[in-house]
Amino acid sequence: xxxxxxxxxxxxxxxxxxxxxxxxxxxxxxxxxxxxxxxxxxxxxxxxxxxxxxxxxxxxxxxxxxxxxxxxxxxxxxxxxxxxxxxxxxxxxxxxxxxxxxxxxxxxxxxxxxxxxxxxxxxxxxxxxxxxxxxxxxxxxxxxxxxxxxxxxxxxxxxxxxxxxxxxxxxxxx
Length: 174
Prior knowledge:
Elements lengths: L5 H14 L6 H22 L3 H10 L5 H7 L11 H4 L4 H12 L1 H11 L13 H4 L3 H6 L6 H19 L8
Helix pairs in contact: 1-2, 1-6, 2-6, 2-7, 6-7, 6-10
Protein name: DUF4303 domain-containing protein
Organism: Streptantibioticus rubrisoli
């Protein structure tokens, strides 16, 4: 994982898991966290494909979770003061794209193929099987995290941009 994007990936994965919690035990929690982390990683690499892009987002910040919290109703709950720090590293577009990938394994496969040669991988082997080909344990562990209806408000925010990007259009081209 790119060190420059690691705070964005970790915070966005954390936001996904907390917003769509696991109902099982420790194993289910670990499996759901792995799936959220893989989705956030692929989404971040798509969104920020170069080291320069990653450095820029690290410099200006990704924007935080406020709008996402509002969409999911989390803003009505009291957020602990200790959570504001990590929540500031959540990237709305990365969360939206990750939600798209979690709810559509075929789209996730296309996204993984798109990042196969990116700078962030730098020739390292990477396995995104939990994202692209979840087994029964993965699906059970992340039932809420992969539920298309529940994730729709977040996924729909930037789905069109993700689809255009995967079809070869540069990010931000309209």
